[in-house]
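Progress against Task 2.4 (sequence-to-structure conversion) is shown through the following example record, which the project officer requested during the mid-term review.
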Amino acid sequence: MKINAIGIRATTLTPFAYHSLMVQGGSATLPVLISDRAIAFGLAATLGILQASVALPNKDYYRHLKAMPYRTSVFTTDKPRLLAPLIRRLNLTEEGGFPPKIQSVVKRGNLKDFFHTQEVPEGHIFTGAIFSLNHFNPFKEQEKLVIRIGLHRNGMVLLEKTDTKIPVRLNAATSALFGNELRVERYYLHNLQLSPAYSLKEAKSEIIKWQ
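Structure tokens generated for the chain above:
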């Protein structure tokens, strides 16, 4: 399998959040990174290689990631920032068709349907890499790509090719899906475990094992 490593600069065009960290009254995203899987699936959607379906497929990250003609690193930043907490409302009672009496109850007390999130701001820059397989080139048609990430895909991120000498970090949890063990330097979540920083050449030698 031939691999081409492409250094990428990712700039947030709009704020985005994930339910990464539980905080009082809501959740906050991890401001230091964009996960490799968020980049992989966001890029797949932009390139039109996701299968259309009226229902969510069974979660099978190994099968889904293996089918993509590329692999991705974690995207990181040295200057993490978060916006102030934002109040959100989950209106399942109205959309679910519950009667007015039940709707009134869930708007008060312990059942109140408001929560907070904290988002990564627009204009924030992350760096990482895309490893294209067997001459596949995601930038063949254009030099820049915009992908959607975050809750409900509300975030938009601009991907641009950049200096190929940038260091990158791989997700040891993703590597484990392919039966390959990596040393973990920073454990964030069960499915998000950062390797030490690699050069693109060193990262390619690991990525080639992800088959």
